[in-house]
Amino acid sequence: MRTLDFATDKVQQLSLNELEHTYKENLIDGTPVGGVYHFVLIQELLSIFERQGLKPEVQEIFAADNRDSKRPGVTLLPAIEEQVGEKALEAHVLRRVYANISLLSDETDDMVTNLAVAYHQKGIQVGIGPMVRVCHNQTILGANDVVANYTCFGGSRLERGQRSLEMIYKRAAEWAENYGADQLLRREAMSWMQQEEFTRDDLYRTVGVLTEKRILHDTQHKLIHAADNYPLNSAQINETCEQLLLTFADVERRDGLTFWDAYQHFNTVLKPNRMDIPQVLPQSLALFETMKELRVHSS
């Protein structure tokens, strides 16, 4: 019997089959809360990419608990526990789920294109982009590579307001159908980052911009408040910048850093087992856009 213990670890890893066997939360009319079960969402996305021959494969699924008095990330049902066993998988309602789906049609030793799926109380988010194997970093290389059924990415580039589940499936189908052309654009977005040097002065500028974005987002002063997502919070800025400073201090390092290297350092903390699931994709997009802004201003 598979059990889950969110009291010990607030993030648990499951397979798609295990996710399907968790308790199914329905509205009074018998339809799924949120419009679709998490496992059905993942299965449908797999089917969309399978139809285009892109070899999708679920790599990992995370479920997370969070403090919400009305609809917490995890609810354990005592009445079901009595039937199936203490802390049994089947007795859990999971409302905060994140899945990594690799597209194995053009993978390399270094990188694989990944479909990231976030299902939670606020809605559904889906993103596509390269995942760096060595550090397991998901990259989002532009606003066209994310979609959600609620306003979460911000900015005038994306239409605001509600999107239906069907629109999410439609965007995923467009990614699958235009996969070859889109991959060329993604490689072009990566190319400049991999070729341009990232200096210590670039780091100082980046720290300043990241900190400013975080402050403007969090401030209560309407005059300067910015609603757009910040790329990193204070703790994430401290951790990633410390690692970059250590890298610059490493006298044994022969090769210089590129913007891509720095981007991956910053991106290391943006993972579902290290932060709040609804923020992973919005912050990932904001991080790429910030690096792009820094490049424009420094050139």
Protein model, in words:
- This protein has nine helices and nine strands.
- It has helices at residues 16-20, 38-50, 78-84, 165-177, 179-195, 200-218, 234-249, 259-267, 277-298, and strands spanning 11-14, 56-64, 74-76, 92-94, 97-103, 111-120, 123-132, 137-138, 146-148.
- The strands form two sheets. Strands 1, 2, 5, 6, 7, 8 and 9 form a seven-stranded antiparallel β-sheet that branches. The chain has a two-stranded antiparallel ribbon with strand order 3-4.
- A hairpin with a 4-residue loop joins strand 7 (123-132) and strand 8 (137-138).
- The relative contact order is 0.12.
- Mean pLDDT is 90; it is low at 156-161.
Biggest sheet layout: 7 strands, antiparallel
SSE class: alpha+beta
So how many helices?
9
Average pLDDT metric: 90
What percentage of amino acids are in beta strands? 15-25%
The level of helicity is 40-55%
Question: What is shown here, in short?
Answer:
This protein is α+β, with helices and mostly antiparallel strands. The chain has helices at residues 16-20, 38-50, 78-84, 165-177, 179-195, 200-218, 234-249, 259-267, 277-298; strands spanning 11-14, 56-64, 74-76, 92-94, 97-103, 111-120, 123-132, 137-138, 146-148.
